[in-house]
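Sample 3 of the quickstart, ligand adenosine-5'-diphosphate:
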Amino acid sequence: MWQTGGVSEEDKLTRAQARTILGRVFKMAEPFRKSMIIAFACVMVTTSATLSAPVIVRHGIDAGIRAKDTGALNLSVVLYLIVVTFTYVFGRLLFVFVNRTGESFLRVLRLAVFKQMQRQSMAFYDRNKAGVLVARMTADIESMSELVQWGLLQFLSAALMLVFSIVVLLILSWQLTIVALLVMPVLVISSIKFQRDSNRAYLTVRERVGANLSALQEGITTVRVIQAYAQEDEVNRKFKISNRSLFAAHEKSVRISTWYFALVEFSGVLASALMIGIGGWFAHRGTVTLGTVVAFVLLLSSLFDPVQQLSQLYNTVQSAGAALNKLFSILDSKPEVDEHHSAVDLPQTGELKVSNLSFTYAGAEKPALDNVSIKVGVGEKLALVGPTGAGKSTLAKLMARLYDPQTGKVEFGGVDLTMATMDSLRERIAVVPQEGFLFNGSIRDNLRIARANATDAEIEAAIDAIGATDHFAQFADGLDTEVRERGSRLSAGERQLVALARAALVDPAVLVLDEATSNLDPGTEAEVEHALERLMAGRTVIVVAHRLSTVQRADHIAVIADAKIAEFGSHSELLALNGHYAELARAWQKSHTVTS
Ligand code: ADP
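Result:
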């Protein structure tokens, strides 16, 4: 199970985890094997070419210049040119192949994660906040792109370069190899230290980026409330703190890199100086040739660069591994509300029956529903009323199988909802949420959310069924009117009409409604009421009610209090009971609507 908190902890991987992840990556990269092999071949060519250039220079100096053999010198020059061209051409080819493979891998991964997110149930989205999921798809994928684009190959080429260059050095001269390796311990020790420090610094940066992002997100989503209560200064102060600590973390990581790279550079200079000094002395004594000394000076970078690259890569690998780990855990999270392997279609119609239902939200201490049983006959209307937090919405959601209960069951026409095929479930039972959410696109597109293959005629029929044809006909573009993101152009009432039309398009046997708590403007209010009435006609309805008018129309009323059904009956029966409901009805009569 993956958690949203504790960034630094979740960013650390054990060796076993790292191995599993690597295995899965290779499996996922299977389709790109050809490009990977080509890339690997390119690495081999560029490594060999890079290493052979100094050897050719050596030949040019010793056999050409010093032995005064023009032929040998010319050959060296030509060979050198060829080898350098090879390095360049294959280097570019490598770039193309590595990038293509890397991006293709990320494309496949993004799609897999997105699809998996779409399959998840409400419970998943309770656990994982949208911001965190967005971070999975952006920041985590981003932190991997470095690895898949360059990292893996750089790792390979650095390792190859290191091994091959030592071999070449040893072949040329073991004495000079010892000289070349003199500064190695300093480099290796500082690289290890750098790798540790920078990894720690990196984790801190990430953690603070996360904190800063949450501060930002909260600042944006709550801006209305903040401004209403003139809390801008306080919010700014908080953001300033998290921003400053992010700055400090960045500074620290820059400091670490600064001294490390200075040291690496100095080691390089020192090694060259030692090579020229000691090598020159060797050459003077005739132990090695001048060409060999020059070749060694040139080869030093092939020896030192990989050490530096490998230590830097460690962090890339570490962060990519952590990102992959989180992405894989999304890929692995089985949707809780899923189709049973022997699922059956729900019957066309039937009684909706809740038996001994108990449900606790993940992480909650108290159950939101505690042993609830209730029945709604075909075409009957059930209103759920009660104080805020009593469990009304939860019951409504379970009756539409947006969640699965921990104990007890919900049946439609005698079939347990957990045993129903998803298609038949969504066809029979439609949920109309409190806020009609609109997607970018036209009104028509927004209705098609309910049924992708609906024809224009069916869409028009659905709008007609709720009596909203005239309303949308007023728009210049009619049903082709773009609703813009989040429906900023449609009024709340119009959004509600779209939501109701969506349900009409599904033409379900059961409607689960969460009635809007706020008042609409009187003009559209009447239209929405009318649309609702038409939509409810002939269907079984479960409505989380906030208005007296809605409750009075219901056949049965269930008063939910403290996760249980406290009272059950018709409006008049419950009034006569003079309990919770009677009290609630009196309050409603005073204010016409409730705010619960
Ligand atoms: P009502 O609709 O009666 O206002 P709900 O069914 O929304 O009440 O909530 C019942 C209880 O479950 C409340 O204590 C609420 O805080 C809790 N709850 C509701 N939704 C969630 C959720 N997604 N995750 C955790 N707890 C929740």
